[in-house]
Write a structure and sequence with these properties.
With 324 residues, the chain is of the alpha/beta class. It is 44% helix and 19% strand. The protein contains 13 helices and 13 strands. The strands form two sheets. It has a seven-stranded mixed β-sheet with strand order 7-6-8-9-10-12-13, with helices on both faces. Strands 2-1-3-4-5-11 form a six-stranded parallel β-sheet, with helices on both faces. The mean pLDDT is 89.
Length: 324
């Protein structure tokens, strides 16, 4: 069967129109990314995520937009924000911290909306994924390995005389509670005494710091989003009492803590962006292994001078040295 020449031409025009419309529709696709965060200290991950997505070709305003109200430290309001993001028909959720990721997991359950998290310290133990290699659900993201023993070693190397260590943490948060459990045995072998200080909100933290009891040789902040939000206050107390302060992220050292052995929150955002890009291109998060961030020691030399600690060159050569 043959078509008349005019009919064939008309058919070609229609096909070209349909293909062109499909191309325009694909070109005009704007991805909506919902962002949810429990701790202000995690905000650098959002900046890294945005920059990472831009580097991958997602132009903000034309091919991608973000819905982010800033960190929400009230868990009820955090849950409400999760519902709001789902009502906004987001294409993907980027969750920062374990509490925010647990909310994202709950609101996206039984949906096709993927979640990329980062940083999260214990995604398997927290129930976010089945395993790091095969997440198995609609979540994947960026975590970090067990940094605590090595970080405690760095603190002891820098300040060999320490014995009693203040360990403020939110006992209602699974991540720092698990870290404390792992760290106790290591501390005992190193002849160090960890003194847990359960603090559950900003008011309790402020009261503790205003009435700081003393009797400690150092302060050790765990991977705890609530404690990280108050890093500047912990820095002030540590310096005023001439105590070494250890934090899990380099950003804490930049803020004035003496030492960290851990990851950069900003870099976690870049890693999360690479995962989000793969998901938006059609790869299931169930098949994307959870990535592990790189650990580096960081030392603040200005703080070392303020608390009268001399650090050996052999230690400094292993670390990122911050001098301001």
């Amino acid at each position: 069967m043959t078509f008349p020449r005019k009919s064939t031409l008309l058919l070609l025009i229609v096909l070209l129109f349909i293909l062109g419309a499909c191309d325009r529709q694909q070109e005009q696709k704007v991805y909506t990314i919902g962002v949810i965060n429990f701790s202000q200290a995690a905000d650098p991950a959002y900046e890294g995520f945005r920059q990472g997505m831009a580097d991958l070709g997602y132009a903000e305003g034309s091919s991608i937009r973000y819905l982010y109200k800033g960190h929400i430290s009230d868990k009820q309001k955090l849950a409400a924000e999760g519902d709001h993001l789902m009502d906004s028909k987001v294409d993907l959720i980027f969750s920062m911290t374990t509490p925010a990721s647990l909310v994202a997991q709950k609101v996206t359950a039984n949906t096709s909306v993927p979640v990329v998290f980062g940083p999260v310290s214990n995604p398997v133990e927290s129930g976010l994924v089945i395993s790091l290699k095969q997440p198995g659900g609609n979540l994947t993201g960026v975590t970090f390995s067990h940094q605590e023993p090595k970080r405690l070693e760095y603190l002891k190397m820098i300040s060999p005389s320490i014995k009693r260590i203040c360990f403020p943490y939110n006992s209602r948060d699974k991540s720092p509670a698990l870290n404390l459990k792992r760290l106790r045995e290591v501390a005992q072998k190193m002849e160090l005494e960890l003194i847990p200080i359960p603090l559950h909100n900003s008011q309790e933290i402020n009261v503790f710091l205003e009435n700081y009891p003393g009797g400690f040789d150092a302060i050790y902040l765990p991977t705890d989003s609530l404690m990280a939000t108050h890093i500047s206050e912990f820095v002030k107390i540590a310096i005023s009492h001439k105590l070494p302060l250890s934090t899990p992220q380099r950003e804490g050292v930049v803020a004035g803590a003496l030492v960290s052995y851990g990851f950069s929150i900003l870099e976690v955002g870049f890693q999360a962006a690479r995962l989000a890009d793969q998901i938006l291109r059609g790869i299931s998060p169930a098949d994307l292994p959870v990535e592990v961030s790189e650990f580096v020691a960081s030392i603040n030399m200005s703080t070392a001078r303020k608390i009268d600690i001399t650090i050996a060159n052999s230690i400094l050569r292993q670390a990122v040295v911050i001098r301001e």
